[in-house]
Amino acid sequence: MGRKFAIYDTTKYHFVTFTVVNWIDIFIRDIYKEIFFESLKYCQENKGLEVCAYCMMTSHIHLILGVKDGFDLTDVIRDCKSYTSRHIRKAIEQNPQESRKEWLLHAFTWEGHLNPRNKDFQFWQQNNHPIVLDNPDKTQRCLNYIHANPVTANFVSKAEDWVWSSAKSYFENTTDRIELLYLT
Predict the structure, then answer these.
(1) Is the pTM of this model over 0.90?
(2) What does each C-alpha distance from 73 to 42, 139, 143, 147 come to in angstroms?
(3) How far is CA 83 from CA 39, 86, 106, 131, in A?
(4) What is the Cα–Cα distance from 159 to 126, expressed in whole angstroms?
(5) What are the pLDDT tens digits along the chain (184 aa)?
(6) DSSP for residue 132
């Protein structure tokens, strides 16, 4: 049986979304955001990941990703999500400031038990809804969508003001928290 949403051509860039189960607002704390960016950096340095754009919202992250020759985007995404799931769980467990600790751990454990593909814990929704970026118009639409996300959510009035996005780097052509491969 085929999968509706899958990455079939890892030689092309893809727009993907990583969504926390039940759209839980986990990325309201910088500690969890930094774990995600550490994972991206690691995957860039060791797994051939190329990040072209991103926008981290409170419950999901939009990205445009690709990989260098010899690497598989599906594998890199799996490894990134696995790493962040484990390390964010550990950070929640060890964070004395986390007022939602019991509720969060219960919610992620509950979702893990509901999914036969997991042992006991599920942080991310399983699908990334990848969209292959096979023409310049589609690529530009996805890039605009990613950067406009915090404006649409009324978090900021200008995309480049959202700190957890690559919009400012694109707008000002500056360095970012992670290495970006700019789309032209």
Answers:
(1) yes
(2) 14, 17, 19, 22
(3) 7, 5, 20, 23
(4) 28
(5) 345 568 888 889 999 999 999 999 999 999 999 999 999 999 999 999 999 999 999 999 999 999 999 999 999 999 999 999 999 999 999 999 999 999 999 999 999 988 887 778 999 998 899 999 999 999 999 999 999 999 999 999 999 999 999 999 998 887 777 888 887 6
(6) E
Measure CA 36 to chain center. Answer: 8
Place of tokens 């490894």: 79
| Encoded amino acid at 137, one letter | D
Q: Name the token pair of 47.
A: 């797994």
Between vectors from CA 165 to CA 84 and to CA 56, what angle results, nearest 5°? Answer: 40
In 3-state terms, what secondary structure has residue 79?
helix
Note the helical H segments in the chain.
30-46, 73-94, 101-114, 136-152, 167-172
- Measured CA to CA, the distance from residue 102 to residue 147 in angstroms comes to 33
Tokens read off for 149: 């996300």
